[in-house]
Amino acid sequence: MLTETTASTTATSNQRSHYQPYHSQATQQQYAQHQQANAIRSQQQVKITNNNISNNVETKQLVKAPNIPDNLDRSSSSSLVNSSAPSAYELHHAVRIGDIQTILILHNRLRHGEQCLIDNNGHTPLYVAIEHGRGNIVDLLLHLGHNPYCITINRESALNTAILYNRYDIVEYLLNRGYPVDHCGFENKIPLELALECNHGHIVILLLKYNCNWRYVEMKKSISLVEWALKHQYPTILGVLIDLYGDDENVFNAIGNTCCT
Prior knowledge:
- The chain is mostly helical.
- Helix content is 64%, strand content 0%.
- The chain has 13 helices and no strands.
- The longest helix has 61 residues, at 2-62.
- Residues 1-38 are annotated as: Disordered.
- It holds the Pfam family Ank_3.
- ANK repeats lie at residues 121-147.
């Protein structure tokens, strides 16, 4: 009986010792499979994350920064989309490149009396337009209310500035618009005086046709307009003087005496 019990116990023990390793081996295999599955999922998640990061980087690279001129303060570029008053750099740059749409947008944000906004050179937008020969922008700014009589911190006028830069078309436009032909600008110079100093004979002729005060210039500068015309080889000026002042004996005699000497 004892022998049978011992044999039965031994058999059961052998069965347990045989089962336990199998159960342990199965558990290890399941755990290994589980770990392998987790590793695969982790790799897939990392790959997806990397793809998202790559896509985000590529998307950010495709979104270009706004084209802000080098001479503008980039910190102020946001003012193009808000309601704050524009800086002188923004408006002057738009005038310089002839961007009419931007000029209108920026001008609408100007506060009352700011049409003469000064840049770091002491110039208004109207000065910049004349300097770069943009007659259409000059016309636009004047219609928007910009002051043509004071366009620099030195109180230079639009007409004198146009003469200085030899912008014949802008000079003619201003005169046609009714700008005073003898309005003094910087250093109290009238337009004819400046045109003579710059040797712009074609502009001198234009000013004479608009009845500028050439006698005032002769007295102030102690020069003869007839002599100046002959010296700088502008005989057309003599013809204009004869057409306009041929009835004036002094003018006729001055021309005759100068030509005969």
